[in-house]
Amino acid sequence: MRELIGNIVIGIGLVFVLIGVFGIYRFRNFYSRILIASKVDTVGFITISVGIIIRNGIAWFSLKVLLLVAVVMIINPVVTHAIASSAYHGGYRIAGEEEDAADN
Amino acid sequence: MIEYSVHILAAAAVFTSIRILIGPTVWDRLLAFNLLSSKLIVIIMMCAIIFEKHYLLDIAITYALLGFVSILFIARFVKDRGRI
User: Fold this and answer.
1) Is residue A11 a part of any domain in this protein?
2) pLDDT tens figures, A3-56
3) Residue boundaries of the structural domains of chain B
4) pLDDT at A92
5) ipTM value
């Protein structure tokens, strides 16, 4: 029973990951891509990890997976912010937004 | 179920690698590399369940931290156009 619930949660996480992979081909703009891909992929990772924890029950294995979830929940938003900040301050602009960039 | 999940994630990793190859700018490649590394961490976790080797999770944690440091420093390096 516990294994069945874990498999269902892992399947939901796989759907999120596949949406993220579709999203980086769907959008033509870098900032749209970084918005859709990072959020969806982080959600997919956390959902799959919760499914693995449910599937294994209470053990040292689940504690290590929980530590990995904590690490990824801290570093994934930081990495996404670093890439977006690097693109903006490095001079990458969208074609129609030259006016807004002049104000800063 | 876990074995089929590994196959689906491997296919998703291949499609993410194509974005690394065709990405127009260097930041697209960095973003796709971030997504690829998170998919690889999930694949390593599922391999730890399939083969019942618990030390593979330590490898996954180390891989996550090394990928974090490398992407952060590459982003800082590209921002200043190569001037350190």
Assistant:
1) yes
2) 899 899 999 999 998 988 888 888 888 888 888 888 888 888 999 999 989 988
3) 2-79
4) 76
5) 0.83
Is residue A14 domain-resident? Answer: yes
Section B71-76 average pLDDT: 89
In a domain, A104, yes or no: no
Number of folded domains that form chain A = 1
Inspect the interface and report whether the beta carbons of A86 and B25 lie closer than 8 Å: no
Dihedral sign, Cα of residue A79, residue A80, residue A83, residue A88: negative
> In this predicted structure, what is the pLDDT of residue B69?
92
**Which chain B residues have a beta carbon less than 8 Å from that of A63?**
none
Other Cβ atoms closer than 10 A to A78:
12
**Is any Cβ of chain A less than 8 angstroms from the Cβ of B39?**
yes
Predicted pLDDT of residue B13:
92
Residues A40, A79, B4, A64, CA torsion sign? negative
Give a yes or no: residue A9 inside a domain.
yes
Domain of residue A14 covers: 2-91
Indicate if the pLDDT at residue A99 is higher than 60: no
- Say whether residue A28 is in contact with chain B using an 8 A CB cutoff: no
Which residue carries 């903006």 as its tokens?
A88
Tokens representing B22? 């065709």
Q: Do B31 and A38 touch (CB under 8 A)?
A: yes
